[in-house]
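Need residues for this backbone.
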């Protein structure tokens, strides 16, 4: 039988997680998300049958992209992957997490700049600040992980209104968990 660990960056994003599901609030950014996820997984005596589900908001990097998405690839967008490869190491900047075509770019930059948005849109559909780190941490523990993001903004100057937009996304994410996870 499967059990779940719901991981979200903020309490606001997890506000409508159904009762009874364990929730980890990581804080914003890759470091906070990776450490909090790893700490939570390390507390389990046995992770057999456990699945991590990272929920949260994301900015749309492409015009017209709205709604709920389950990315198939997470991308660490603010690592200098080419330089690391030149040093002879694999930066593992892209991780396959599902079958879907949507790519989520994760970085420690809150994207509001149109030039950054345009550059990221060449490689990804969505942007957040935690997804890649949650996937990385879960993989280190051998625990399957899913990433489910709701578009809250267009990763532009309007993204600064995120505090007023997050509640709508949280409701959609909570409804998805209620409908998608077996009781």
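Answer:
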């Amino acid at each position: 039988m499967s059990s779940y660990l719901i991981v979200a960056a903020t309490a606001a994003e997890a506000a409508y997680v159904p009762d009874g599901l364990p929730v980890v609030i990581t804080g914003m950014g890759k470091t906070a998300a990776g450490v909090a996820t790893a700490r939570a997984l390390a507390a389990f005596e046995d992770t057999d049958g456990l699945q991590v589900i990272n929920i949260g908001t994301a900015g749309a990097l492409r015009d017209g992209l709205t709604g709920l998405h389950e990315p198939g690839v997470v991308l660490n967008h603010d690592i200098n992957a080419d330089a690391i490869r030149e040093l002879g190491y694999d930066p593992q900047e892209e991780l396959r997490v599902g079958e879907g075509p949507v790519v989520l770019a994760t970085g420690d930059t809150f994207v509001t700049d149109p030039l950054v948005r345009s550059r990221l849109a060449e490689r990804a559909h969505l942007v957040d600040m935690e997804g890649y780190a949650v996937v990385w941490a879960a993989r280190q523990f051998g625990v399957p992980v899913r990433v489910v993001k709701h578009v809250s903004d267009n990763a532009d100057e309007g993204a600064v209104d995120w505090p007023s937009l997050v509640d709508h996304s949280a409701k959609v994410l909570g409804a998805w968990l209620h409908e998608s996870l077996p009781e």
